[in-house]
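Q: Structure tokens for this one, please.
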Amino acid sequence: MFLGIIIPDRLKNSIFIEAYADYIRRIGFYCDIRIFDFKSKYTKDLEKTMAFQKDKILDISNDYTKITVEAKGRMMNSLSFSKWMEKMMLYKMEIYFILGGAYGLPKGITEIADDNISLSELTFSHEIALIVLLEQIYRSFTILYNHPYNK
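A: Here is the predicted structure, written as tokens:
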């Protein structure tokens, strides 16, 4: 199984990068995982920026399973998220989680996603959202494989 996480902003802060690397290493024990971050081509024209981001997201995720992570998505606790992950792993070989950048998700991405989930009703920066998502993915694997982390 392969998990991809798409973020339409570069990861810059070394404190966050260190945390991401730790979770990528931990999750890598259970499946292949990769973070796709990219710098938006246009920064002054919001419409062009969002169109560029949408094209990049679609290029990366291609015809695979797309899961948007957004405040309006379906709320789950850690146990239901792990059961959802187990179900996804049974039927999907490649899953791409899509996080919004500074201006949210590009128009049309939510509508073509296979599922929409929420980490919280709170708004997080993409760096914090990524850490929370990675932690929950790791937690879900430890629950599914009965490893002690989740206690």
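A few notes: The beta strands are 2-7, 32-37, 65-75, 94-99, 115-118. Residues 2-150 form a domain with the Alpha/beta knot fold (CATH 3.40.1280.10).
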